[in-house]
Amino acid sequence: MLKNIDKIMDKIARLKEQRNAIILAHNYVGSEVKTIADVVCGSLGMINAGRNTNADVIVVCGVDFMVENVAILNPDKIVLNPVEKAICPLAQRITVKEIQAAKMSYPDAHTLLYMNSSADAKAKADCVCTADNAVKMVTELNGGLPILFGPDYCLSYFIRKRTAHTIINVPINSYCPIHHKLSYEDILKAKMKYPNAEIVGHPECRPEVQDCVDFLGSSTETIEYCKHSDSIEFLVADEVGSLEVLRERIPNKTFNPTSTPMVCHGMKKAKLTDVLNVLETNDNQVIIPKETAINAKNAIDKMFTLS
Ligand code: SF4
Q1: What is the extent of the structural domain holding 153?
Q2: I need a labelling partner for 280 at 20 to 30 A (CA). Which of 88, 170, 201, 261 fits?
Q3: Domain containing residue 47: CATH number
Q4: From atom 2 of ligand 1, which residue's Cα is the shortest distance away?
Q5: pLDDT, tens digit, for every residue of 94-137?
Q6: Same domain, 187 and 145
Q7: How do residues 70-105 score in pLDDT, each as one tens digit?
């Protein structure tokens, strides 16, 4: 079995070189795929890597909207999705119709979308954001006008607690079903079990969970925070992939889950064989229709301008 994996890895390495390809992987993807990736990071890091690469072929291991983001930024490159059905249910919760209806109701408002949204939705936005920069984007965009924000009401709660700006959720209450599984009671139980641990969490967690953790941030910000914190033991209120990355990058500290580990199945769909397959065949190449790509890219570029 191991030999088989080694063979697949060798083939992937050879194809990467032959095709001038790179592999981007989100922190939440399965550990085997992370071992062959050139870059392992959060959504913002993936966009940065996708923007700055000289590769001709980019394999994006994550969920649908992440592959779309890289395709939007690289219309002249081959962008490959190892598994077509790797879907983020949160990203699918906001539709173009909902955005258009909200804009009709609030014609003066800015439209800011979380990166976890489709290319079609992004094409209707003024700007996009990640968990890393959501508060900054709201502050920079504001100009005294309300902000239509979607699709995650939990991230919206995180922003509201840090700014006084008027934010209108579109839709009203959609959320990440994985982070939503974690309850306030889970945190209390975990605190009893590990009384000395510092609790770090993601802003996609429920508001009542956000209110009782010690640090909230994107998976990338959490890594930096834990590296520099004086604590040596942490409870991690985030997807299990984050826990793996924390354990690997900060081996001198201890990281425990806050509950039964939260697993995003969409993120775990891509296997080594899928990466090899798309590199061999160009199956699942993602091409965004030109007009959508131009408008969505404007929203992404605006985020970088305001950063
Ligand atoms: Fe989407 Fe939640 Fe999975 Fe992130 S963890 S990709 S928001 S379903």
Answers
A1: 91-175
A2: 88
A3: 3.40.50.10800
A4: 176
A5: 999 999 999 999 999 999 999 999 999 999 999 999 999 999 99
A6: no
A7: 999 999 999 999 999 899 999 999 999 999 999 999
pTM check: above 0.85: yes
Which residues surround ligand 1 with Cβ inside 6 Å? 63, 88-90, 116, 176, 178-179, 204, 239, 264, 266-267
Q: What is the DSSP secondary-structure string of 270-301?
A: --HHHHHHHHHH-TTB----HHHHHHHHHHHH
* 204 in the same domain as 147: no
* Judgement on whether residues 170 and 99 belong to the same structural domain of the protein: yes
CA of 212 to the centre of ligand 1 (A): 21
Residue 74 and residue 96 share a domain: no
Do 195 and 211 belong together in one domain?
Answer: yes
Residue 306 placed within a domain: no
Q: How far is C-alpha 274 from the geometric centre of its chain's CA atoms? A: 21
Residue pair 67/42 in contact by the 8 Å Cβ criterion: no
Atom of ligand 1 nearest to the CA of 63: 6
